[in-house]
Amino acid sequence: MKNKLIFILAGIGVVFGLVTAYILAIEKKAMPPVFNPASNPYAQGVYSNGIIESYQSNGANINIFPEVPGTITQILVTEGATVSRGTPLLLMDDSIQKATVEQQKAQAESALSLLRQLKAQPRKENLHIAKAQVEYAAANLKTSQDQYGKLKKSFDLDAKSVSKDQLDNAQNAFNAAKANLGVAQRQYDLTKAGAWIYDIQTQQHQYEALAKTYASGKALLDKYTLRAPIDGVVMAISAAVGSFISSQGAYGTYNQGLNPIIVMASSSEYYEVRCFIDEILVPRLPPPSQLKAQMFIRGTNDSLPLEFERVQPYVTPKIELSNKRTERVDVRVLPVLFRFKPPKDKNLYPGQLVDVYVEAK
Question: Which site in 130, 182, 193, 243 is 20 to 30 Å from 322, CA atoms measured?
Fold first, then answer.
């Protein structure tokens, strides 16, 4: 009985082994690829990595940095928004600069008020007082002159009728009244002439200096509002309300570097593709006017023809496009730019990596 059970189990094991071997021997068909790798459409084509950019007559995307440091208090646009030139994009805390500008404005207005005061001289009331002083001095002179004349006549008729001391005092009073009239007349003329031209010029320069200081402060105050430099589309905002930003950018939480505060693209109907041609392949390129290229969208079987735009005639070290831009390698590349009109049925964005083949000699 025991031996029979052993033979039965052995037979089951043999059958299981044969079935397993048969199943494993069946060749499974490979899954079809989701998309085909980019293939060279040209008989002599040069491959290059490309990155999509907004269409610009020069440079790449528009990176916006503030000219003054500060804390963001309000963001006025959203990513993907279409804005016109001069549209406010975000606001920064300007409380200190605003108080400074108000002080500079008050100083300029004070200097202007004093300048107007100098130009408005003589004041009518001051001129009336000076004229009255002249008339008063003239009256005193007439009184002194009459007194002295009477004593002089009496003295000439009879020297004993008037003492010599009285005659001298009357003469001195007459001379003093005459001098006072001269002083009063000169004071009147000075008042009537108004402010001295050099005082006016000095105050004019003082006002102009303070006015320029105020204008400079106001211009600096305007820098606390970031505005769109062109008509375009807001592609990325790298800081939030409460973030501290400076002319070097905003600190990136993930890449731990400094990024532009806002990245904008032009509102052109075209996109650009910046291709990096290896330096050893550059001699194989035809003249720029004969350059043809085709772009392959990664993750799809789609391709688009490209139109030559320009060559950036400066060979630079290649950078790792998908990593930090500070990483460099020994290979040097020539940037060649093409343009294309993005089809409406495909999702393409600036910053997207693509495969490009350029027809070569």
Answer: 243
The CB density around residue 3, as the number of other CB atoms within 10 Å, is: 7
Asked if 105 contacts 214 with a C-beta cutoff of 8 angstroms, the reply is yes
The pTM of the full predicted model, rounded to 2 decimals, is 0.70
For tokens 């549209």, what's the residue? 87
Q: How far apart are CA 273 and CA 90, in angstroms?
A: 30
C-alpha dihedral sign at 323, 327, 333, 335: positive
Nearest of 315, 307, 300 to residue 355 by alpha carbon = 300
Distance of alpha carbon 131 from alpha carbon 10, whole angstroms: 144
Domain boundaries, position 211: 95-116+204-223
Residue 68 lies in a domain: no
Q: How far apart are CA 179 and CA 173, in angstroms?
A: 10
Q: Give yes or no: residues 212 and 164 share one domain.
A: no
d(CA 357, CA 177): 109
**Identity of the amino acid at 308:** F
Q: How far is CA 257 from CA 57, 75, 90, 239, 295, in A?
A: 28, 22, 21, 13, 31
DSSP calls for 208-244: HHHHHHHHHHHHHHHTTEEE-SSSEEEEEE---TT-E
pLDDT in tens, 277-330: 999 999 999 998 889 999 999 888 889 999 999 999 999 887 765 545 555 556
- Of 107, 100, 106, 108, nearest to 221 by C-alpha is 100
| C-beta of residue 245 within 8 angstroms of C-beta of residue 239 | yes
Q: Which residues of the chain have pLDDT under 70?
A: 1-5, 7, 9, 22, 24-25, 27-28, 30-35, 320-330
